Structure formats: structure tokens, C-alpha cells
Amino acid sequence: MIPELGQFALALALCLALAQGVLGIAGAARGDRIWMAAARPVTQGQFVFVAIAFGCLTYSFVTNDFSVSYVASHSNSALPLPYRIAGVWGGHEGSLLLWMLMLCVWMTAVTVFSRHLPDEMVARVLGVMGLVSIGFLLFMLFTSNPFLRLFPIPPDGRDLNPLLQDPGMVMHPPMLYMGYVGFSVAFAFAIAALLAGRLDATWARWSRPWTTVAWAFLTVGIALGSWWAYYELGWGGWWFWDPVENASFMPWLIGTALIHSLAVTEKRGSFRSWTVLLAIFAFALSLLGTFLVRSGVLTSVHAFATDPARGVFILIFLSVVIGGSLLLFASRTARIGLGGGFEPVSRESFLLTNNVLLAAATGSVLLGTLYPLALDALGLGKISVGPPYFDAVFAAVMAPALFLMGVGPLARWKKASLPDLAVRLRWAFGVSVVAALLLPFALGQWSALVSLGLLLAIWIAASSVVQLRERVRNAASGAGVWARLATTPRAYYGMLLAHLGVAVFVVGVTLVKGYESERDVRMGPGDTVELGGYVFRFDGVREVNGPNYVAARAEIHVSREGKTMTRMYPEKRIYRVQNQPMTEAAIDPGFTRDLYVSLGDSLGPTQWVVRVQHKPFVDWIWGGCLLMALGGLLAASDRRYRVASSRAREQAYAAAPAR
Amino acid sequence: MIAGGVAALAVSAALVLSAFQKNLVFFFTPTQVAANEAPQGRTFRIGGLVAPGSVKRRSDGVTVQFVVTDTAQNIPVVYQGILPDLFREGKGVVTQGRLGPDGVFQASEVLAKHDENYMPPEAADALKQAHGNGLNAAQKTLVVPGSGR
């Protein structure tokens, strides 16, 4: 009964999505106030029905209703409750339902937080999002229905993949999807502005907080995925350039470019066409990510069910979305206008350069991800593109971008002067060069790449200090330093924090790449191995029972200079239902290093292969991502995005002739 | 400035493409390797089944020898390190490395599968090529796609 209720709710949600699309777009085109006003409640209604459907599927999971095919293949009665709930998005159908729920959350957020926007704009935005929602609901109902029943009813489920039975898995997909789907808001704003034929500073200002929040969620989502891979796959890698990872990274790169391009469009009116294109591509890449992961085209460690109907549907959907938006864009380019001009040396130029670099980085990831697929599809052989390609290209493209991050925020709009910038930044530059040259010696061994990485990170941090200092000094008010700091807008602090996050991230990547060490050794009781100044002693293995697995749990005693530091308990688990072995690494996290121990194969009753790893500063990688995301949220909460004066603005908007 | 921009773009595109070219890893089946179609001294991938009874461990515990087969040809492989959890005799495997002058494949990576029922597509492909399309029922069950993240 409950699953049928869920399916019925989805069908009703589809009806409402149709109504939302028509009322929003046609209403705004006809200038019909009643239609436009109806778009909001219809959107909220759709949210209610999708939430009901989601609730029904969750209920089926919680109550172990194995008559539902999706539940039977992704759960088991022995599965602990939190993972039964996370199982809702542990497979294809359920994760689409999560996608839909997120889309509804964003749409409802638009209806709630856009009271200060003109009705016409809101109606168009909701209309565009309604169309996206129609596409996804059709996809679910026709190719990926999570509520399909199974007969005969199996006595128990096939269990959730043990790799997904993990707290990281509970949080990673919702965060990632919040980010993916969040770019639909930026996309909808861009399309709405194109439909209205007015791309101006107000459009950019309305779009900015939404884009930044979506970007922050995506940042957290990607970081969680990387962290999950680090501790759950058991071998200590944190980024594999796997197509699924690339699929989430490409929208992030374009989204980062979009945030900065929107800033220029809002402040100076420039880059309008570029901003619109970025908004379209950020969302298109989110859809492409969904396509890559969900259609089963990938020959990657993340294997998904291959089903051509799904692939064809997503491809058609993707071409309609991208093709339609680009057509609309092409038909409106004449009316977009150029905005303020700028000199070759100006903040606009620096931001443009960074945008181009980010776009180039995206292009190279796209090439490395899609080229093997294209060759395979054309029957030209199977190839793979290794991490060295991505590493080399990324280091080359991102190094100048990171350098410009230190200069851009200090440059004037419109026209800046290089000698002036050089004078203002000379201390920051000197400090970072000296520190970058000397620090590697303190850390152990000097190497050019480590030095370069540290140089860029310290440069970003030092130039941020210069910025803040200048800001306080140049502030108009005669008040003291604290008062000036207090009047500095949150958007500015958000930018500083996010940039510092990048610096922290770069430090983490540089040091872990430069100084990590690992050893694979055969160990029996009492054997020791030394790594990174720590002595690991193997104290034997005993059997332990988990709720749905049995494990061999080793005890590793860790000491440094004779003093006991910690005890670590890596496990080799066998999950009973799928009879699948899994390595559960033991990690001793620290501010300056992680110790990482995993159990390999058993070589007899007491002997095991053990991998010990020393990973300096690895946690800075995710810490940096967290700072970036916090910076984004802080910037998005700036009060100027919320300032009402709505009536006045709406009247101005209605009165001004469309350009 | 425009000329400079175009030049910079051209240089970076050339760099990207050369890095790309250098890091392409091609895939070969054991039959192709046996026919000397695989390059000497360059990294490539092979895939197939781990031949039953072929896995042997040297006394250091971390060096493993096994045989990858597409049921037509066998390629001996040596790997130093920890094998993925789902590495088993008789199951599909993909491994990356170089072919030594002695005809032994020196693996630098043995690729993990995330799921017991999932067969790496390359491995399935190698078997299919060796057999035409006459996969027997036992092997077919290996190709049932599983689920992952």
C-alpha cells in the first residue's frame, strides 16, 4: 500500500511540475499576474508530494518491505537502521528520488527567499525549474521507478554494498546532490533573464547567493566523497581521477568560474554573455555527471547497472537542455550588451584570466574523462587515461590561477597599475618566497614541487593579510580598527575565508604528495616496522562479530621514541549476506599527520600482510575544502542580498524598457 | 594582447595534448599480448580471469605471482603489494604494468572491483574476444552488473 502511495505521489508531483512550468513561463510571457502568482503554491505542492514519495520509500526500507524490488536489492533485515535509511540513496532509482527531493528543496527555497524579487522574474525561474523537474520525474516514472514490486517476495534482501555501509555514505550523496541540483537555480536565473531579454547587474545580484550556496554544498559533497574514499576503500588514496569523481569536479570548476564571473557582472556589468554561458554549462555538466554515473557507461570502479533506455533518455534530456539553452542564448546575444569596458591590467582582466584557466582545466578533465568513452563507443579500442595526465595538467593550469588569486582582489576595477600592485605586494611576495624556500628543509627534504606548492599557498595567505590591512586602513570612517573590521561586509570575509581555504588545501596536497610514505610488510605477533619516526608493533589478530559481518581485528601498538602513542585496530571484514570481504583501515588522525594501517591478506594462522602509511598534513585537504565552503556560505549570507526595498526595485524593473 | 592570448592558448593546448598522449594507457587481451601486439617498455593494461590455482606468494609475503587468462592464452603476472579485497582465483581482473623481456607482466596496479558480481568490462571483453560470443553459462553469471556508489 505504502509503495503505491509513493508512486501515486510521484505522478501527482509530475502533474504539478507540468502546471508549474506552464504557469511560470507562459504566465510571465502573457504578463498574467494570477498565473504567475499560482506558480509559488504549485511549486510548494510539488515539494510536498515528492517528500511524501521519499517518505514512502524510506518507510519501505525501515520496515524491510522486500516486496519492493529496489528495497530487496539494496537492503537486508540485518542491516543497521541508519544504513537502511541511507540505503534509500544507495542505488540508481533511490538516488534519483533524492535528486528530485533536492530539486524541490531548492525550488521551494526560491519561493520562500525571493519575496523581494519581481513576480515576473520568480515566475520565470520557477517555470524553468519546473521544466527540469518534468524531465526528471518522467525519467523516474518510465525508466527508474523505485516503487516496483517484486513477486515472489524474497525472504530477505540482497543487502547494501558493504562499501556504502558507512557514515560518509550517509552524508556524501545528499551534499553532492544539493550542489549539483543547486546549479539548476543559477541556470534557471540565467534562462529567465534571457527569456526576459534583460541581463543586467540586478540579475547577477539575485543569482549570486544561490550560486554560491550551491557551490558550497558541492564543495562539501566532493570533499566528503574524497574523505570517504580515503578511509573506506582502505588504501589511503584521496583522489583517483576516477570518472565519477571527475563528473562532480567539472561542475565545481565551472561553478567556481561562474561565482567570480557573476561578481564582475554585478559590479561592472561586464562579462554578461560569458556569465550566462557558464551558468548554462555548470548545470549541463551537473546533468552530464548524472548521465555518466547513472547510465552505466563508465568502465570505472564505480560500476552501475547498464540500461540503454536510461542512457538514451538522459542523452535526449541533456541535448534538449543544452541545445535549447544555447539556441535561446544565440537568439538573444544581440540584446545582451557589453557592459563596462576595462584595461588589460585591471581586476576584470585578472578575473577573466582565472575564468579562462578554470575553463581550460575543465576542458582537460572533460577530455580525459570522455575520450576513452568515445573511443570505446566507436569500437576503436579500450584505453584509460592515467592520473599522471590529470596531475600534470592540473599543476600547470592551476599554478598561474593560484598566483593570480593573490593579485586579483588587490587590483582596481577598470584600470590597475602593475608597478603599484608590485609595491603593495612586495612584502607578501618576499615573505612567501623566503618561507617557501626554507620550509621544505624544516620538513625534511627540499624539492622544487614542494617549494612551489608552499610558495603559492603562503602567497595566497600573505596577500590576504595585505588586503585586509589595506581595507582597514582605507576605510572612510574615522573609527578604530575593530569598528572598521565590524563594518566590513560578510561577503568580503567570505571571500577571504574561501581563499584561505584554497591555501590550506594546497598545503595539504603539496605536503602529502611530497612526503607521504608507505610500507607493505609481512607481520606476525611481536614484529615491528618503522615509518616516519613511528614504530608499529603487530600484537596479533582476533575475531570479532559485527551486526552483519565477522571481522579479523588486528591490534597495532604505535610508539615514538619508546613512548606509547596509540593503539590501532585495522579489520578485515566479511559481510555475511554478500560474502564480500572488505578492508577497514585504522586511522590515527592528527593536525600534522595521519597514521594509516590496513590489513592485507592472511598468510597463515598468525601472519598477515600489513600496509602502514604516514600521511603528513593530509587532513588539511578536507579542512581547506571546509573553509572554502564556509567562506561561500558566509558570503552568501551578506545582508545586501537580502535588503528588501523590493517594491521600489520592482517598479523600476517594470518601468524600465527592456534592452 | 589578443595575439598573446591566442599564443598562450595554443601553447597550453599543445602541452595538454602532449601530456594526454604520454599518459594514454591501452588495453590488451592475453591473446594479443601472446601475439606480441602489446608494446615493449610502455605501460598498458591486461584483463581476463585469474587462472585457478595460479596464485603463489613469495616468502616475503608481499610479492604475488598469478596467471591472467582469457582461456585461450595465459600471461604470467608478478605484483608487489596488497591485492584488492575481491581478487580471487577464477574471477575477473584487470591489471596495469609493463611487459618484461622474460614475458612476465610486471604489474604496478591490480584494479579493484567494488562488487562481488561485477566483472571489469575489459576483462569481460577479453573473454568474449577469445571465445567469439560463445560465453558459457558460468562466465555469463560473472557479467551480471552490480551496484556501486
* Strand order in the sheet with the most strands of chain B: 2-4-5-7-6
Amino-to-carboxy terminus distance of chain A: 55 Å
Largest sheet, strands/sense/barrel of chain A: 6 strands, antiparallel
Helix content of chain B: 25-40%
What is the structural class of chain B? alpha+beta
Order of helices and strands of chain A: HHHHHHHHHHHHEHHHHHEEEEEEEEEEHH
Task: Quote the CATH topology of chain B.
Answer: OB fold (Dihydrolipoamide Acetyltransferase, E2P)
Principal-axis shape of chain A equals globular
Please explain how this structure is put together:
The complex is a heterodimer of chains A (659) and B (149). Chain A contains 19 helices and eleven strands. Mean pLDDT of chain A is 89; it is low at 299-305, 644-648 and 655-659. In chain A, helix 7 runs antiparallel to helix 8 and helix 9 runs antiparallel to helix 12 (347-377). Chain A has 659 residues and is an alpha+beta fold. Chain B has 149 residues and is α+β, with helices and mostly antiparallel strands. Chain B contains four helices and seven strands. In chain B, strand 1, helix 2 and strand 2 (44-50) form a beta-alpha-beta unit. The radius of gyration of chain B is 19 Å and the shape is elongated. At the A-B interface, helix 12, strand 1, helix 13, strand 2 and strand 8 of A face helix 1, strand 1 and helix 3 of B.
